[in-house]
Amino acid sequence: MDTAVQSFAERIREAAARKTPLRLRGGGTKDFYGQALAGEIFDTRPCAGIVAYEPSELVVTARCGTPLPELERALGERGQMLAFEPPHFGTGATLGGMIASGLSGPRRQAAGAVRDFVLGVRVIDGRGASLRFGGQVMKNVAGYDVSRLMTGALGTLGVIVEASIKTLPVPVAEASLRLEMPEATAIETMNRWAGKPLPVSATAFAGGQLAVRLSGAAAAVKAACERIGGERIADADAAALWSAVRDHAAPFFEARPGGTPLWRISLPSATPPLGIPGQLTIEWGGALRWLVTTADARTIRDAARRAGGHATLFRYGDKSLGVFQPLEPAIAAVHRRLKAEFDPAGIFNPGRMYPDL
User: Fold this and answer.
1) Which option is the CATH number for 255-321: 2.60.40, 3.40.120, 3.30.70, 1.50.10?
2) How confident is the model over 106-121, as pLDDT tens digits?
3) Which of 96, 90, 91, 79 lies closest to 165 in space, CA to CA?
4) What is the pTM of this model?
């Protein structure tokens, strides 16, 4: 580990001295996400492996290049999981990419997001210095929580060489149901479920069908199935369904002729249908809406803003218009100061989030 970290630090210092941009990359499964890719590829996979795992403490510490399937298998052998169900988007997904992208899967609505489970990180900054933030317990932060700041930063602030993640036990029982209803009814139904003591761990609405996954004690799952009704999905089919939703392997997410843009719209869960023409999939109890549409970026972002949310151009489309929702001036200034502090030479993934970062 020390050899890999030292090698990383030396290359970063050399790049900073020459002001050579570096493109931080693990398995490359999320290369599509964010603005344009730039710089020499900085492969994080040589720094891999599980450093420590304490099942009784629900904490695992692993290196940035550790393949996600390898990590999840190790947790599964002890009856545990990454509760936020991170998407892989390919066989080469790594722990570092999981944290840098900050993306969560279907279980996020019940368990929380990636950043909620990041307990501590070891980072190499733009000066080549190795820094540690946080620790291996939930209450370990005094001051600014840099560990969670790194989550979703797309590698623009530093190389995450190691991270400690909180794990959770795999549910004792699970069942998935399917119900038919229109979009507006589905949104109302998901929000009604959220206000009741139901063990809902995931929801997905598409094409007039609402799928719901129930997780927890066997008695609670059985009672919820009877209360909700609908068609029970066979366990094998349900596993395939939620895996496809997580990794965008469902037909809805497949590439279309011309690469019709796929938008990721985050909204208050009870927001009624936005009324933008296109094909729609809804997750997280109504809070996450995937929209395939040819509508222009301003129309989509204005609709999201009016509803109290924001929109991201997730795949395809014209990235010159900006992938992420434009920042307010005061927030943009904070981003620039953070970038200057962690990466003074501006070498890490330049422009990956915003053109001036």
Assistant:
1) 3.30.70
2) 999 999 999 999 999 9
3) 96
4) 0.93
